[in-house]
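User: Hi! I have a protein structure encoded as tokens and I'd like to know what sequence might fold into it. I'm fairly new to this, so please keep things simple.
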């Protein structure tokens, strides 16, 4: 691909606001973890109340304290204002450019959704402003006063890979000439809902995250937001300095499990190789790896295999940066916060260290530095993975590395259209999918609808090549019905919620289940937010096929509309989406 410049950035994390949010420190500095005991989570009864929070004081000047209103919106607002300030210096006429905004999230307006569900359960009227904020795209309202209300804004529901996907997709739209400027990034706020869910899965730590170490016992949640302004490097005005460059992008799916990574790491390794090939960079040229590094046993083990697969014996001399060990797992913000930290390291000539560590896992063959070291890193490979088996990778550079090779764009055609379905057909799924009886019986309604719609759309085409087929789901309702079922159980049983209830609350789950059902290993994600979601999902699906990221993309419109969705839509004054699902198959025009 042609180099894409990171012209400006705005970020907020437990480390601070602006450049401080992703600062790796000076040579010789020993990074420290900001994960600590969380009194709020302790009061809620969590057995492992550990987190890394953004200080409330950083949100005061934004007119929306962390203990009032929606914390997710406040975080996104802070990052957006930081970005706008820097971008106004770099590109004073930026609001006059053709602009597209892509913002990733895992939980969206979850702080407001918790309040809305609690109010409704107690038979209290849900106010319109609260209802609007409770949707997965609710926090994006913070952007309108900054970027304008008529700008195309896409909500990327890609869980923990969301902001990495948003950046990569933004690069594709720039290369295709659909925009002159892209703002891309992600956000997520801490909430009791999320903390209970991750603890129920047994994924959280009782101390501090210790990625790739034998003593690791899980992740700690963090929170934050990050946005970057992306522009074709060839279009950057003369004399402007850049944070760095995006040189390559790759996205794949594991097609294995909805919460655990493929133990072999096959999918994430494929994403890494695609990003390297896109950048025309050999693995031997990479100086730094920004790892996903959740410090959970399954993820660390799979990622260690990925690193060995990609780098071989050279891994022993390669610095690996686990930024989640410092700021916690910031979910939808993680990929870009970690990318900005990597760009900070490249710009400062630093090989970044990790917080205090002990014995490394025998399967991990890279380097975790105890302190920052002076060096001359030029290229970084960023890895991200997510619920639903989604993987994404970026190649980041201090310099543009030449002009790059333009990706040839091809025309895209609609190859098949399936009928609309309003009820899952489990008999059809038994005949046409890889899902066994246990998996079929455990499908939540949204995923069952999506898989049924895909099975019907594929009938005239037969099997598609697994390695090169992706899935894009558009949704307005997202996982609101599953969220209410989980939260009702949480209100009833406290923190003792069954682990099986939490995965269904991830809005990109139907996309992930479709990949598992049909062994699709191309890119997979969901696009959410209002009546425009279907059109934006179509644009993303077309871009993936046109750029060759996938040979085919199955585009699914899916809404599981029940009492919760109807209640929130009516309270917010929004039209209730149509219940059901339908699928379209896109591919290259002959």
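Assistant: Happy to help. Inverse folding works backwards from shape to sequence: for each of the 590 positions I chose a residue that suits the local structure. Here it is:
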């Amino acid at each position: 691909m042609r180099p894409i410049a990171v012209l400006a950035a705005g970020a907020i994390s437990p480390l601070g606001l602006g450049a401080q949010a992703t600062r790796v420190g000076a040579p010789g500095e020993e990074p420290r973890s900001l994960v600590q005991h969380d009194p709020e989570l302790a009061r809620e009864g969590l057995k492992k109340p550990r987190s890394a929070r953004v200080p409330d004081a950083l949100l005061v000047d934004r007119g929306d304290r962390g203990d009032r209103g929606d914390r997710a919106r406040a975080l996104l607002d802070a990052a957006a204002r930081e970005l706008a300030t820097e971008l106004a210096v770099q590109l004073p006429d930026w609001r006059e450019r053709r602009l597209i905004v892509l913002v990733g999230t895992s939980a969206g307006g979850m702080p407001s959704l918790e309040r809305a569900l609690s109010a409704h359960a107690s038979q209290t009227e849900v106010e319109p402003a609260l209802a609007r904020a409770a949707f997965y795209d609710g926090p994006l309202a913070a952007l309108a006063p900054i970027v304008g209300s008529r700008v195309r804004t896409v909500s990327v529901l890609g869980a923990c890979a969301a902001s990495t996907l948003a950046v990569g997709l933004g690069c594709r739209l720039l290369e295709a000439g659909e925009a002159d400027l892209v703002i891309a990034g992600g956000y997520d706020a801490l909430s009791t809902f999320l903390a209970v869910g991750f603890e129920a899965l047994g994924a959280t730590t009782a101390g501090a995250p210790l990625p790739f170490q034998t003593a690791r016992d899980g992740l700690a949640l963090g929170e934050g937001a990050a946005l970057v302004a992306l522009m074709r490097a060839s279009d950057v005005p003369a004399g402007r300095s850049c944070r760095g460059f995006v040189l390559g992008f790759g996205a794949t799916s594991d097609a294995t499990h909805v919460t655990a990574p493929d133990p072999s790491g096959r999918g994430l390794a494929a994403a890494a190789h695609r990003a390297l090939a896109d950048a025309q960079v050999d693995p031997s040229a990479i100086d730094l790896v920004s790892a996903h590094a959740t410090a959970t046993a399954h993820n660390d083990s799979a990622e260690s295999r990925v690193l060995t697969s990609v780098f071989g014996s050279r891994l022993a001399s390669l610095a690996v940066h686990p930024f989640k060990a410092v700021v916690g797992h910031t979910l939808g913000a993680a990929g870009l916060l970690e990318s900005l930290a990597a760009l900070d390291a490249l710009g400062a000539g630093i090989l970044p260290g990790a917080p205090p560590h002990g014995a490394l896992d025998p399967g991990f063959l890279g380097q975790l530095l105890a302190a920052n070291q002076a060096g001359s890193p030029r290229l970084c490979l960023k890895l991200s993975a997510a619920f639903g088996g989604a993987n994404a990778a970026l190649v980041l550079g201090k310099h543009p590395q030449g002009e790059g090779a333009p990706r040839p764009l091809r025309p895209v055609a609609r190859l098949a259209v399936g009928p609309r379905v309003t009820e899952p057909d489990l008999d059809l799924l038994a005949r046409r999918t890889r899902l066994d009886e246990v998996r079929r019986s455990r499908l939540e309604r949204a995923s069952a609808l999506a898989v049924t719609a895909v099975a019907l759309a594929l009938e005239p085409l037969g099997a598609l090549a697994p390695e090169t087929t992706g899935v894009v789901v558009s949704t307005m309702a997202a996982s609101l019905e599953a969220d209410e079922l989980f939260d009702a159980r949480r209100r009833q049983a406290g923190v003792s919620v069954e682990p099986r209830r939490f995965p269904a609350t991830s809005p990109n789950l139907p996309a992930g289940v479709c990949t598992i059902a049909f062994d699709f290993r191309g890119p997979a994600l969901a696009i959410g937010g209002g009546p425009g979601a279907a059109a934006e999902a179509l644009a993303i699906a077309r871009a993936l096929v046109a750029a060759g990221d996938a040979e085919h993309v199955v585009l699914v419109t899916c809404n599981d509309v029940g009492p919760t969705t109807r209640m929130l839509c009516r309270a917010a004054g929004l039209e209730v989406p149509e219940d059901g699902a339908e699928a379209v198959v896109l591919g290259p025009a002959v």
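A useful reference point when you look it over: The CA atoms of residues 121 and 488 lie 8 Å apart. Feel free to ask if any position seems puzzling.
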